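Deliverable D2.4 — example input (C-alpha cells):
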C-alpha cells in the first residue's frame, strides 16, 4: 500500500511539473511580444544627450562628438574646475563649415561685452560662458552631414579647447 501511495505521489509531482513547463511555455510569447515592441523605442533615437566636460587645465574631455543629421541634440557643458568665469571661463561654440578659426577667435577675443561671442553668422549654436562648478545645457537640431569644428572662445582657449562635431 505504501508503494502505491509513493507511486501516486511521484506521478502527481511529475504531472504538476509538466504543467509548470506548459505554463512557462505559454508565458514565452509574452516575452516575444515585448521584443516586438522594442523597435518602437528606436523612434526616440532621434534625440541624443551629450555631456561635455571642461577643466581648469583648458581642456574638453572629448575632442570628437558624433550625431546623426537632423537629430535633436541636448548638450550639457560642465566646468569641472574651480576657477571663476572671469579667469577661466569656458563655452561651447559650434562653427559653420569653412570658418577660419584663428580669424574668428580674433573677433571673439575683443567681444568681452557678449562673453566672447562675436557678431556675425559663423556660429551654428553656442552656450553662454560658465565658470568653475557650473554647467549649462542647450538643445538644437544637428546640421547637415559633415564635419564641423567646436571651440571655446574665451581668449586664448581655442588653440587647445577644440574638437570635431561629426554629423553622419
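Example output (designed residues):
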Amino acid at each position: 500500500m505504501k508503494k502505491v501511495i509513493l507511486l501516486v505521489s511521484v506521478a502527481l509531482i511529475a504531472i504538476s511539473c509538466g504543467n509548470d513547463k506548459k505554463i512557462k511555455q505559454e508565458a514565452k510569447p509574452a516575452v516575444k511580444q515585448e521584443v516586438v515592441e522594442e523597435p518602437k523605442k528606436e523612434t526616440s533615437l532621434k534625440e541624443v544627450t551629450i555631456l561635455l566636460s571642461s577643466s581648469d587645465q583648458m581642456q574638453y574631455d572629448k575632442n570628437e562628438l558624433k550625431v546623426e543629421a537632423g537629430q535633436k541634440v541636448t548638450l550639457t557643458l560642465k566646468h569641472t574646475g574651480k576657477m571663476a568665469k572671469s579667469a577661466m571661463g569656458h563655452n561651447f561654440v559650434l562653427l559653420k563649415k569653412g570658418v577660419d578659426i584663428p580669424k574668428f577667435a580674433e573677433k571673439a577675443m575683443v567681444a568681452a561685452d557678449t562673453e566672447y561671442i562675436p557678431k556675425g553668422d559663423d556660429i551654428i549654436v553656442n552656450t553662454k560662458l560658465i565658470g568653475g562648478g557650473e554647467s549649462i545645457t542647450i538643445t538644437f537640431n544637428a546640421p547637415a552631414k559633415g564635419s564641423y569644428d567646436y571651440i571655446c572662445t574665451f581668449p586664448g582657449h581655442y588653440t587647445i579647447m577644440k574638437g570635431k562635431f561629426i554629423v553622419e
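The first helix runs from residue 2 to 37.
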